[in-house]
Amino acid sequence: MPRVVSKRRAVAVAAAAGALSLGSLAAASTARAAGPRVTIAGTHPEWAVTAGHAAAPAVRTGTVSARVYLAGRDSAGLTAYATAVSAPGNALYRHYLTPAQVRARFGATAAQVTAIESWLRSAGLRVTGVTREIGGYVAVTGTVAEASAAFGVRFGRFRAPGGHTYRAPEEPATAPGPVAAGVLTVSGLDTAPHLARPAGALPPPGPNYWVAPPTGAYYFQKIATTKPPAYGRHQPWNVTGYTPRQIRGAYGVTRSRMTGRGQTVAVVDAYASPTMPGDADKFAAVTGDRPFRQGQFAQHLDTPFNSVTECGAQGWYGEETLDIEAVHGQAPGARVHFVAAASCQDADLAQALAYIVNTRAASVVSNSWAEPADEASLTSVDDLIFRAGAAEGIGFFFSSGDNGYESPVEDPASDKIQVDYPTSSPWVTSVGGTSLAIGSRDNYQFETAWGTLLDPLAKSGKSWKYAPPGLYPEYWDGSSGGGTSTMYRQPWYQRPVVPDSLSHAVPGGGRTSTPMRVVPDVSALADPSTGMLVGQTTLQPNGKTYAFSLSRIGGTSVSCPIFAGIEADAQQAAGYPIGFANPAIYRRYGTRAFHDVTGNPLGPGYLAQVRNNYADGFTRRGPIVTYLRTLGVDGEGAAALPATKGYDDATGVGSPRSYIQSFFR
Q1: Domain boundaries of the chain, sorted by first residue
Q2: Cβ pair 468, 231 in contact under 8 A
Q3: What is the model's pTM?
Q4: Sign of the alpha-carbon dihedral angle for 339, 340, 344, 348
Q5: Which of 185, 216, 335, 560 is a plausible cystine mate for 42, CB 3.0–4.6 Å?
């Protein structure tokens, strides 16, 4: 699982920072004195703090390239309509709007856009582009002085913990009162990594990660009898990697006889693999499925690509491949529309999401990327897009994250315990992760929350180095993302289901009087040791040639496209677009639609596997290293996300059981 930007996450911006220099600009003072102004939300980065700053000249030179995002009209009306069409039993349920109808009712007017352009030009900024659709913006460029005058801010330089310095506004940007209602937010005022910058051509594919033997074709096929026991028994060797057919059997897809035919699933990632969809066709053939038929696969590439080095483009190739193969594996009859963002920067990913809503390119959208919530820069833009999508009958699905509660000891890019975003938006379906045991007949055996502690084999080979399960966090090895949001209040669909003990919890400890959004909503296979096989063209161990190779992949980057594919099957069963799925999902809580995933599915005690790793998994070189992998340890202490009976913040309402069948007419 790649980390940070190539780990399904937009570029992380350093959190706490100290100002290197502050000051005032005459132009900014003049702009503030010109008349009543209104603060623009989301324009002052959390890391651009003033405490402890040193006296130094303000930033007076340089250029600013910004996007002023359009708020549109009647935000409350859009929320109400999106809620009504998504709520079973409502008179407007499934009365979806077309993209043109959404723009006509809730989009920005020509007068609003003209007023915003006039305001920006009056400060000397040059308008370089305008998009009036949902998620649209006015793009401008100019000098620091011109931007300071337009937005009523002073600029300074701020040092991040990693030693990098960024230009950023000292205070939130403002807009003149007459135009402020049409402005949603502004991006590009700071130079931190979420600002997209031009870059060169895409690199070739990276190396493959090779799975060391022995492995089982299914769970419990091979028992590690030559290795020390743990928890009173010899544990099984890990699996080679499940095929899509095995996963279809475990999650009720095979029994449903649904294939997703007639549905379209969009997959959103950054960049585009040079070997797709050929790799997906080869993978289908190798694993016994059918390749894409003519016209079943399409792609929209938002070129030119940029920020290639910052974002780690090679890692995104594997993400795209995994996502497409997982969706096709669970919905082999569905159309797959790949939408490639120009980079992993927040603004470019938002533009890719907006494309889907403005063209209704799909009714199900899989997104295997995330970032800590306090680092997301365009939440208001994304949420506008998600609400518009709900009004059109589009469901957005997001990975819940691979670092549990984002504790700093589990994710150094996070400065506190928190949930990820966009998965924590109340307008998307958050998909958590599990460890899944599948039997010899593709049958579901058991499941627990994904959360792994490693314990290396002792030098003697007769015991494990530490008393199982091992040391946390030193040997923690990934877990399902989840927890309670501090940004969003509890949505209506969670009220009857989510326990107060979770919705009123404050990340890191304490309680709040206001119930908040809790994630994930659902879950599916994610543990890399019970992961899915993926086929991709990769650099071979000789470091010179490229060839198609199989590997086992995990993370909530697997669970999200698996569930998105199953959602397409459910839509086929229903005969209509389900759209924003959460109201329908929570309505099925406690039924046979879901497996209730707990921490002890086989009774008291830990579950575990034994796994061999190459010392260098990319070249298959070095000695074999053996680990006991204890399952179901999703954080400890304040960062713990235990899987319990009923709804929990590790696996949500559970994993698919007869979910598809619950939609049969």
Answers
A1: 4-71+107-187, 244-663
A2: yes
A3: 0.93
A4: negative
A5: 185
